[in-house]
Write a structure and sequence with these properties.
By secondary structure, the chain is an alpha+beta fold. The chain has three domains: about 130 residues, Beta-Lactamase (2-Layer Sandwich); about 70 residues; about 150 residues, 2-Layer Sandwich (Heat Shock Protein 90), CATH 3.30.565. Helices cover about 55% and strands about 20% of the residues. The protein contains nine helices and eleven strands. The strands form three sheets. It has a five-stranded mixed β-sheet. Helix 5 runs antiparallel to helix 6 and helix 8 packs antiparallel against helix 9. The longest helix is centred in the middle third of the chain and has 67 residues. The relative contact order is 0.06.
Length: about 375
């Protein structure tokens, strides 16, 4: 791999170049600011010299046009002329209403003393000090670098987010491909297993054993279908949610510890809603498996189905260790898990299946530490 093809170095070159450009712009802004500040002080000095001439020459003082031209040289610069004893003589370019108050003038004078050194005016034994504040343009230039940094920060943030999202999309595409390939690979041994089941049946093997094997083969087929649907928009069809939920519930019940008490109840035998049965079954299995893990293989699990005017509510309750209230929303984030072993993907996938694909809701209904947890799914009834 050549130097310029190495993305590691390319990213650092881009960042380094951006820093150089920003530093150059900031330095130029600083130089321009100082130059403009000196030019402004030069105008104040010219004004001070003209003011001295006007004050020391009565004939010039009678020329109002000349006086106006002198004041025009500093029309955008607030100024205060102070006598030797500290009293304020005159002021220019300050707020006409606020400047009537002595406190305001003193505050402005303090600001001026902090920004610039005064210009001394002496004539006929009189000494006065001309203080001035930076013009509005200088104030704007002062905050220009900050605005530039904010814009640059926003730009870099957008670039980073675009880069990160592209990487996430790339990873998602990879995982989708792997999932579809896994589904394809599972399909071959599944076909063989179906053939072996028929052979076992022809050999007069106990039918109960064959039925259980068929259930597990169907289960593997369902898992393969789930993997094959990753990355594509699932199709929803009208199903009886009671029977589909009970089917998934009973499968795990028959393969779980006898120390767990399972109970299933529903308001009605039939309640219709739009489902993708493979993905919906995945959610039910996820919730029941989490409940079994939370109880460490001993306790009770109940699943109830109720209806309202517009909704079907499925509630899964266990007698496990419970969830801290601060984690009610966090547990649905990818990668979050309280187990020693696990990817932290089960509940995040369940949330996506229910809310994104089925336009429903899934949430922690209630949970008490040491007593158990209830998860609720809400789907639109049809």
């Amino acid at each position: 791999m050549t130097f310029f093809n190495n993305t590691y170095w390319i990213k650092r070159i881009i960042v380094f170049t951006s820093l150089i450009i920003v530093s150059f712009i900031l330095w130029n802004t600083y130089v321009f600011f100082q130059k403009f500040k000196e030019e402004e002080r030069g105008k104040i000095k010219i004004f001070a010299a003209a003011f001295k001439e006007l004050a020391s020459n009565p004939d010039l003082n009678e020329n109002t046009n000349l006086i106006n031209k002198v004041y025009q040289t500093i029309e955008n610069v607030p100024t205060i002329l102070v006598n030797k004893d500290g009293t304020i003589d005159i002021h220019r370019n300050l707020d006409s209403i606020k400047s009537k108050k002595t406190i305001y003038l003193q505050e402005q004078l303090t600001v001026m003393k902090g920004q610039n050194d005064p210009i001394i005016i002496e004539y006929f034994g009189i000494t006065q000090y001309l203080y001035y504040r930076n013009s509005d343009l200088l104030y704007k230039l002062k905050y220009y670098p900050l605005a530039l940094l904010l814009i640059l920060g926003l730009f870099l943030t957008i670039v980073y987010m675009v880069y990160k999202s592209s990487k996430v999309a790339e990873h998602n595409k990879l995982w989708t491909g792997m999932a579809k390939e896994t589904a394809h690979q599972i399909g071959t041994p599944l076909s063989s297993l179906l053939g072996w089941i028929e052979i076992l049946r022809s050999e007069n093997v106990n039918e109960e054993y064959i039925i259980e094997i068929e259930k597990d083969v169907d289960r593997l087929s369902t898992i393969a279908n789930r993997f094959s649907k990753i990355g594509s928009l699932p199709k929803l069809k009208k199903y009886n949610i009671v029977s589909e939920t009970e089917l998934a519930f009973n499968y795990l019940k028959s393969r779980s510890s006898k120390q767990i008490k399972f109970s299933f109840s529903s308001d009605k035998i039939e309640l219709s809603t739009l489902l993708n049965i493979e993905l919906y079954g995945w959610v039910i299995e996820n919730l029941i498996k989490n409940a079994i893990d939370a109880m460490q293989g001993k306790g009770s699990i109940s699943l109830t189905i109720k209806e309202t005017n517009k909704l079907v509510k499925i509630t899964v309750t266990d007698s496990g260790k419970g969830i801290n209230k601060s984690q009610f929303k966090q547990i649905f984030k990818p990668g979050f898990t309280t187990k020693k072993r696990g990817w932290g993907l089960g509940l995040s996938l369940s949330k996506r299946i229910i809310e994104d694909y089925h336009s429903g809701k899934i949430f922690v209904q209630k949970s008490d530490l040491g007593k158990g947890t209830s998860f609720e799914i809400q789907l639109n009834k049809i």
